[in-house]
Amino acid sequence: MELRQEALRALAIADPQEKVQATQALWAQRAALTLSVAEVLVPGDLHLPGRPDRPCLKPARDVPSRSPFTTQGLAALMHAVCHIEFNAINLALDAVWRFADMPDNYYADWLSVAYEESTHFVLVRDHLNTLGFPYGDFDAHDGLWSMCEKTRDDVVARMAVVPRTLEARGLDATPLIQDKLQRVGTEDARKASAILDIILRDEVGHVAIGNHWYHWLCEQQGLDPVAHDQYLVEKLEAPRLRPPFNLEARRRAGFTAEEMQRLEG
């Protein structure tokens, strides 16, 4: 089997559990997979990404927020996290198959991200089930994948605005969510917070992978990484970053001193 072709196949799977199984099988079989850095041919009738009929996708402004101090509100919060993790599987698989002529380690890195995102999805989905709400029971938005579409023809832009902008926002948001869960204080909320500990730990590594390949690509193409990042954020209308920032996590994820100064300024 060829890694990037199989990543495309997994991306096209609509059923979440089947997508998880396909992603984890790819990870388990990675040593036996061949790797071609040529363009991958995409069947004309292939719909990407594969995803279930539910949740219903709406603009972010139309997805209501709920208080986590009720069981339904806690479930809605965890459902939002679950949807992010499902999308994150798709984003990582897309990074594997879509971009040709990258070093072997690039594809290995993003396959590892896809695998870890699949484990996150399972953790959150299973906790959501214990609350009585399967994945798909709440409305969700499609912001992550829409940025994936915007960067489909530019690997530099993909590395800049998906892991370094959108996913890095999770480094900032997770501690705030955990503070809220601590105030809820129930056993279900404590379990949810423990799951977020695992996700935050791994997401630092995912953002670091994005940082590594963004800076590598900028060096290869003679781009100033700070100036080009600002250009891409403006061009692609990426979300503006707002404090508070998880500065320690961002440093561990590989943001440079210049990038951190710009962020804090």
Supply the key terms:
265 residues, mainly alpha, Ferritin, 10 helices
Average residue pLDDT = 94
The main β sheet shows up as: none
Kindly estimate the percentage of residues that lie in beta strands according to DSSP.
under 5%
Oligomer: single chain
Could you say which structural class the secondary elements and strand pairing correspond to?
A: mainly alpha
Got a strand count?
0
Helix and strand sequence: HHHHHHHHHH
Proportion in helices: 55-70%
Q: Architecture, CATH level 2?
A: Up-down Bundle
Uncertain spans: none
CATH class: Mainly Alpha
- What is the global morphology? globular
Q: Could you explain the architecture of this structure?
A:
The structure is a single chain. The mean pLDDT is 94. The relative contact order is 0.12. α3 (71-98) runs antiparallel to α4 and α6 runs antiparallel to α7 (187-221). The protein is 67% helix and 0% strand. It is built from 10 helices and no strands. The chain has one domain: Up-down Bundle (Ferritin), CATH 1.20.1260. It has helices at residues 3-12, 16-28, 71-98, 104-130, 143-150, 155-184, 187-221, 225-236, 247-252, 257-264. With 265 residues, it is mainly α.
